[in-house]
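Could someone model inosinic acid with this protein?
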Amino acid sequence: MKLHPDLEKILIDEASIQQRVKEIAAEITRDYAGRSVLMICTLRGAVMFFADLVKYIDLDVRMDFIACSSYGAGTSSSGEVKIVKDISQPIAGLDVIVVEDIIDTGHTLKYLYNMLLNRGPASLKICSLLDKPERREVELEGDYVGFKVPNEFVVGYGLDYNEKYRNLPMVGVLKPEVYAK
Ligand code: IMP
Ligand code: MG
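Reply:
Sure, complex below.
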């Protein structure tokens, strides 16, 4: 596949992503055998990962969607989290997995995790495609993590810069001049 002209390099190619997504789905299928699970997709970054992941999970899966704002335009965290769109059902007594695109500072997920935990699920786990541990500002770990990435701003496979590049099938790093535009 041709490299997008705004990308400096590919960090994780499409085949590697698909392979890892299948591995995580198999892990979840094993861990939750005989149970049903509610998968919550965080909009919009996790959409690609979520859609691929649920296809490979061999369980009774239900889906819901939540949107929170943590970043404005740009690449740095505000630390402030707001729920823009909540899930559409109570989760008390359910086995719940929150699916994220990336754990960066951890602020967004920490907030989301505590909010959902307060609603009394039977269990609550975190599944994230990417993890940038160097950037962490709060104590938080993903239960299922696709790839650890270095401290670089990444785009593609759901992740955006100013709402662009979400549709790329790989994860990559933008050329410096893209930010100057
Ligand atoms: P956190 O609250 O700092 O952990 O960041 C959470 C959100 O920021 C993620 O769900 C992403 O939407 C966004 N984000 C963090 N790092 C990146 C990145 O490298 N590329 C694109 N989006 C990112
Ligand atoms: Mg974003």
